[in-house]
Amino acid sequence: MWSAQETALKFNPSLSASPSARARVDFKDGLFHIILGFSGTAGPQASVYGIDCPEEKGVHMLVFISKMLLHMSNRTVVLDAAVLPLYTDLMPQIMPALRAMANSNHAPTSIRTSKDELYLWKEALPAWTERCRSWSHKSNCEYAATGKIPLSIKFGERVLCSCGEGKLPTGFMPEFAGWRDLAKHSVRMAISPAFASALVDKPIDLSTSVG
Known about the structure:
By secondary structure, the protein is of the alpha+beta class. Helix content is 32%, strand content 18%. It has one domain.
């Protein structure tokens, strides 16, 4: 997932780097922890994650993972997931469901982010939702109306259009407190690890150890 430069920065955060480079490393690290956490290889399996940015007033989205699949053509994995971006107008409708989930055995696992990393998450959501879309955008789609994708990355504002909300397969997640109400506002997405491009960055040399 990480280039040689990114790997050096990951293991030595004191190295000088631009905010965008550091955000990219942290973004990949967050994805890695979600994949590892859902696999259950590093402890109890977790299937619900909260993307949490203390600089931007807390959790901005919830990620619900249904299953991990092999992506044969790219020789990697893909997470069959759903996302619930949180925004101001939605919160009164889902607060009871959020409280119920928090007190269940599916309480979200926190993925802490910086502000720049959070913005990367919001920019990635439309691509992840489009890559597994089985529904059609409506004539009044917010993307078309505003000419913006995502709609916004600002605190409290809607990120995705409403066209795909609630369009999840039956049995997508196991039943837990609050899920049915949260599912109505969630959008299915396919998450893959983000890999460095050898055309841009020097690949990591796996024959040497990182100091």
